[in-house]
Every structure is written in C-alpha cells, then in structure tokens.
C-alpha cells in the first residue's frame, strides 16, 4: 500500500453553517481524521464519542465539508461527497487543502495558476551539454545552464501551458560535481474551469506522458494558486498511481525531440473524438493496471484498435461485395413470397456484411506505420489477432473443433507471442494518430532490442536499426 499523502486530525463542519461573531468555528463542529492515500482516495473518519457527540449529516452529493487541520495550520474543502455510501468513513472525490478558509469552491479562471511539478520526469525532459567556460584565475568549470521556458496554447481545452526546465550544473575540475534538472508544468485557464474539468485535464496529461515516455508515472498533485491563496488539489482518478522515475533508456519520445511540435501534438491528443477517446482509454488501462490477465490485455488492445479503425478511411470499399448485396436486395424486393419483416431482416444482415472483416481493418491500421514491416507477414499477424479475438469473444478461449489438432496450451502460447507485439503496434499507431513524427516512432521501435524481440516472436521481423551516431561535443569544451 502507498504511504498516505495526508493523515491529520482536525475539526470539520458543513459549508454554509453560520459562525457566531467572535468564534473561529461554528457550533456543532465535529472532530475527525482526514486521510488521503497515495492514490488520492479521500476518507474522513468522525467517530462519535462522549467528547465528540456531533455528526456530519450529508443530505446529497452536492454538500460540501470544510475543516481546519491545526497541526499543519491548513484549511480543508471536501466536495463530491459519496452520498450513496451509507456507512462511515465519509468518502469524497475532490479535496482542496490550503492556506485560506473556503466556504465555496475557489474560482479557477484566467487569474489562476495551476502548477504541476514534473518531479520524476527529469530524464524525459533531457539534459543538454553543459557550457564550459574559463575562469579569470586560469581554471575551467562547467557552469549552470539557463532556465528554458516553452509556451504553448491549447485551443482544445482553452488553456495556455508553459513547461519550465531549470538546469543546475556545478562541476569543478577537482572534487565532486552535480548536474540536476527540474521541470514544471504551468497551466493557465482562459475561461472558468470546474474541479472535474481540471481533474480530467490532469488525467489526460498523464496518459499523454505515458505515451511519450512508454512508462507509467503519475504527475504530482496540482497546486492551485490565486492571488495570495494556494491549495493542493487531491483527486481520486485511478487506483494505481505510477511512482517509478522515468528511465532514459525506455523513453520513446524525449521532450527535446518534440519541443517545437509539443503544443500541436498535445492539442491533437486533448482534442480527441469519441472513437479515439475509447481507443486511448482501452490502451492506457492496460498500461496502468498493476496486474492483468493475458486474455484481458489482448482483447483490450484489439478493442482499442477496433475503436481507432472507426477514424480511419484507409480500408477500401469492396465494390464487388457492394454490388452483390445490392443485387440480392433487388431480387428480394421482387419476391412477393417474402414478408416485409423478412426483407428488413435480410437488409440488416447484408448491411452489416458490408463492414470489412477485423483482419482487414487491423492490417489497414498497421500498414501505414513507418516500421518497414513486410506486407505478407503483417497480413498473417492481423489474421492471427482477429482469429484469437473472435475465439475469445465467442468461445471464451479455444474454439472447440473435433477435427482440430490445436490445444488450449497452443491458444495461450499464441496470446503470449501476439500480445506484446500488439501492444507495441497499438502504442505506435496512437502516437502516429496524434501527430508524432514518423521518424521518431521508427527510431523508438528499431533502436530497442526488446521491441525487436517481441516483434520477431510474433512473426514480424524489423529491419536493422540505423548505425548510431555520437553527438558532437559542445564548443569550447576541452579536448
């Protein structure tokens, strides 16, 4: 279990309760303990004792609980109360903890800054070569890098976003040196936002970074700053927050490689239509889950690709099939022996027959990826994925066929080989869909031996990676 983010005793009451003049708290205040675990699960325990006889009566989910934590001298604002949970402790979806008392939700608008630390993402941000300069005394040293700010406008969610990166380098010629990086996301709303909208934007940012880094690490809790007031925004959106620092060698798309296009790509990610939202949701769920059965992971990836195929117009229409269906329907209309209900049934069946089979839709998605995969191998792979998906959907496993020689173990071995490659291809396709350049996707695939192994096991050998090139040393560096 992750450590608690908050575990403090305090005093709590319902927002709107009148406070008598000269008093800090209203009459009937309730003592309780607020806990927020590492996943953002918010719980308020208010046991009834002789010294604490009062209780909080929640009448609907829109009720708001406010409170004060004397140990840290902070104020609490709890909203989206779980009204349907009949037993203690009290659950809430959102919690604000800050330096000012709140009787209503603070405004989140163009006068508000939302600050999110990129702690743990330093390796994704990337470290440039430090500058080397001679000192007046004749010695040399590597000196601190300048702060770099990247500003982007997000039209899709009506925010402006700034990514601030601060490089600190101290490396004398003698003795130990240090080189550290830190980063921050600064969101600036251009219109009023609710806590629900803010939580949704943060979750989408986390999923976006998962795609770029190929690793599951959650963002720090957002800090809402408005004038002199500052609040930390806790929210429960997932049951498994990623805590491992981003590893350089597993990172697919480092920030410096897309710094110029970052705003455009992020806008396309946030401006998702329904099918892409479903697709990304299925894929992200397979990456966030701490444990997942292999067959569940496989079908989730196929569902992600099926949803994505609704966005694609690459699958060509089978004109011969369309002509055949039209011909059959014309003949059916001329048959007086067919009842109208039978004709409608036939029209519905044949209309569904126009949709390309799953293997063709998967192949159409994969063939546009810049990976140099062979056509025949890709068609075979797409057919295998479609067959295994149909067996899982219709038979919950291996299709029972007396004449077949395949066993359940063969079926499982197929999933073992297909699923990792399907995960990689689904990941690459989402990146391509939101505008990540093809050369970066290709490099992420070809430069990693693990990717090459998974693709080869699935019958999809990748071409040889390009020969590595060493970066040029910075100007002025000692030989």
Structure description:
- This protein is an alpha+beta fold.
- It folds into 4 domains: 93 residues, no CATH class; 160 residues, no CATH class; 148 residues, no CATH class; 38 residues.
- 36% of the residues lie in helices and 20% in strands.
- It has 13 helices and 14 strands.
- The strands form 2 sheets. The protein has a 6-stranded antiparallel beta barrel.
- Strand 13 and strand 14 form a beta hairpin.
- The protein is globular, with a radius of gyration of 29 Å.
- The two termini are 51 Å apart.
- The mean pLDDT is 81.
Helix run count: 13
When the domains are counted, the total is 4
SSE topology string: EEEEEEEHEEEEEHEEHHHHHHHHHHH
Between the first and last Cα atoms, what is the distance in angstroms? 51 Å
Radius of gyration: 29 Å
Which descriptor suits the 3D outline? globular
Largest sheet: 6 strands, antiparallel, barrel
Number of strands: 14
Oligomer: single chain
- Stretches where pLDDT is under 50 for at least 5 consecutive residues are none
Mean pLDDT: 81
Q: Determine the fraction of residues in helical runs and give it as a percent range.
A: 25-40%
Q: What percentage of the residues does DSSP assign to strands (E)?
A: 15-25%
Biggest sheet: strands side by side, in what order?
1-2-3-6-5-4
Structural class: alpha+beta
């Amino acid at each position: 279990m992750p450590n608690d983010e908050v575990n403090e005793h305090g005093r709590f009451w319902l927002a709107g309760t009148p406070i008598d003049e000269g008093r800090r708290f209203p009459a009937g205040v309730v003592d309780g303990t607020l806990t927020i675990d590492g996943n953002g699960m918010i719980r308020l325990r208010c046991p009834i004792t002789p010294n604490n006889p009062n209780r909080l009566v929640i009448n609907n989910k829109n009720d708001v609980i406010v409170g004060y934590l004397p140990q840290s001298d902070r104020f609490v604002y709890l909203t989206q109360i779980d009204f349907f949970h009949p037993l203690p402790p009290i659950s809430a979806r959102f919690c604000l903890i800050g330096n000012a008392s709140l009787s209503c939700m603070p405004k989140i608008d163009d006068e508000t800054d939302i600050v999110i630390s990129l702690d743990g993402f330093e390796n994704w941000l990337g470290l440039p070569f430090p500058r080397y300069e001679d000192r007046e005394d004749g010695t040399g040293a590597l000196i601190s890098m300048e702060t770099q700010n990247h500003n982007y406008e997000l039209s899709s969610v009506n925010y402006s976003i700034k990514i601030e990166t601060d490089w600190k380098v101290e490396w004398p010629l003698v003795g130990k040196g240090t080189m550290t990086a830190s980063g921050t996301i600064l969101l600036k709303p251009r219109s009023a936002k609710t806590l629900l909208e803010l939580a949704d934007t943060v979750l989408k940012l986390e999923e976006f970074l998962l795609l770029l880094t190929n690793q599951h690490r959650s963002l720090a809790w957002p800090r809402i700053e408005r004038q002199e007031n500052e609040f930390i925004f806790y929210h429960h959106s997932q049951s498994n927050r990623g805590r491992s620092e981003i590893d350089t060698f597993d990172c697919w798309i480092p920030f410096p490689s897309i710094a110029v296009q970052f705003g455009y790509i992020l806008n396309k990610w946030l401006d998702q239509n329904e099918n892409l939202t479903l697709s990304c949701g299925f894929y992200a769920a397979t990456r966030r889950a701490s444990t997942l059965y292999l067959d569940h992971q496989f079908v989730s990836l196929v569902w992600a690709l099926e949803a994505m195929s609704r966005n694609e117009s690459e699958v060509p229409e089978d004109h011969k099939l369309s002509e055949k269906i039209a011909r059959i329907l014309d003949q059916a209309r001329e048959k007086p022996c067919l009842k109208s209900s039978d004709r409608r049934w036939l029209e519905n069946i044949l209309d569904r027959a126009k949709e390309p089979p799953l293997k063709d839709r998967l192949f159409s998605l994969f063939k546009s990826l810049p990976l140099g995969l062979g056509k025949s191998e890709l068609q075979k792979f797409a057919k295998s994925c479609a067959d295994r998906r149909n067996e899982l959907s219709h038979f919950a496993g291996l299709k029972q066929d007396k004449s077949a020689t395949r066993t359940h173990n063969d079926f499982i071995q197929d999933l073992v080989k297909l699923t990792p490659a399907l995960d990689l291809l689904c990941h690459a396709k989402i990146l391509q869909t939101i505008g990540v350049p093809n050369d970066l996707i290709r490099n992420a695939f070809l430069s990693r031996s693990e990717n090459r192994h998974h693709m080869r096991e699935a019958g999809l050998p990748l071409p040889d990676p390009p020969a590595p090139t060493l970066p040029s040393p910075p100007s002025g560096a000692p030989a």
